[in-house]
Amino acid sequence: MKQFLVLAAILPLMLVFFVQFSMDQTNSARIGRLNDMVYAAKEEAKQQGCFTRDIRARLTAEISSAFGIDPSRIVIEATGENDVKYRLMSAAGYSSSDWERGLIHYKISLPLGEIMAGRRLFGIKKEENTYNYVIESYAASERLP
Amino acid sequence: MKPLIMFLAMLLLFVSFLAFSSDMDNYVKLQAHLKALAEECACGSSLFTEEAEYAEGRVVIDESAAESYIGFMLRQAERSMPQFSGASLSAEFTFYDDVKGYDGALDYGLAVGRPGAVVTITYTGKDLFRLPFFTLKTLERTAAYQWEE
């Protein structure tokens, strides 16, 4: 009986590890998928010289449907149509602080999944158990003037 | 006493396994980010050409501009990407064009006669694995880019 009671006490704790492992795998797969989506959008933006409204809308819709996130929670800050970047044909006349002139900046952030399994067991609030994943970088525009 | 010892042993084992698994995940993600950065450096740097050579009918990559561009990209990545925070990034690069030649281009699967770049980025930072018997402080990814005909 004593051993049964001990088992009953430690089993939930041990099970958390298994759930945590699968949760990590799921989160990792989601991040991989997100990276692929952003990569494809970035390649398209390089041809257009910016993240056009169409590219943004498609990226938002893709992420939203793949991860079940409300589109309003997906934040895309990127070089837009009012600031189209063109390919820098030559570095002549550019100082090192001027590099951004030919570069498309993009920053995509969204809330991703639960981090810790057994949230209720450890008394963690749902809103505290998510994290904001951010992808931020630059890409050289390939659009010709 | 025996169940307690068993419990502690299992706890230690599970915690170690979980730590290793999540560190391995981070390692794979870091590799993907490093690959994307290397690709961006390779294709961005290949776009800078020397105008005087172009006027002569040759496509020659402006090496100093390309080097500055790669340096800019690395500093930006260190600053803005949380995955690279606290680490330092460095790059080695080789350019192939009508003046520099194409020796070694085939090793990277590049065709001779078309300008291109090979960029290798090295990440140096804190140990990526928390377990004491795994140590990995440097990562390296190489990307190649070549102009289309």
Provide structural commentary:
The complex is a heterodimer of chains A (about 140) and B (about 150). With about 140 residues, chain A is an alpha+beta fold. Chain A contains three helices and three strands, in the order ααββαβ. Chain A has one domain. The N and C termini of chain A lie far apart (about 80 Å). Chain B has one domain. In chain B, strands 1-2-3 form a three-stranded antiparallel beta sheet. Chains A and B meet through α1 and β3 of A and α1 and α3 of B.
DSSP summary, beta strand count of chain B: 3
Amino-to-carboxy terminus distance of chain A: 80 Å
What spatial order of strands do you see in the largest sheet of chain A?
1-2-3
Distance between the termini of chain B: 75 Å
Q: Supply Rg of chain A.
A: 22 Å
Any idea what the radius of gyration of chain B is? 22 Å
Biggest interchain interface, per-side counts: A-B, 34 and 38 residues
Give the overall average pLDDT of chain B: 88
Largest sheet of chain A: 3 strands, antiparallel
Number of helices of chain B: 3
| Beta-strand percent range of chain B | 15-25%
Judging from the principal axes of the Cα atoms, what is the shape of chain B?
elongated
- As a percent range, the share of strand residues of chain A is 15-25%
User: Helix fraction of chain A?
Assistant: 40-55%
Counted by DSSP, the helix tally of chain A is 3
Question: What letter string, H or E per element, gives the SSE order of chain A?
Answer: HHEEHE
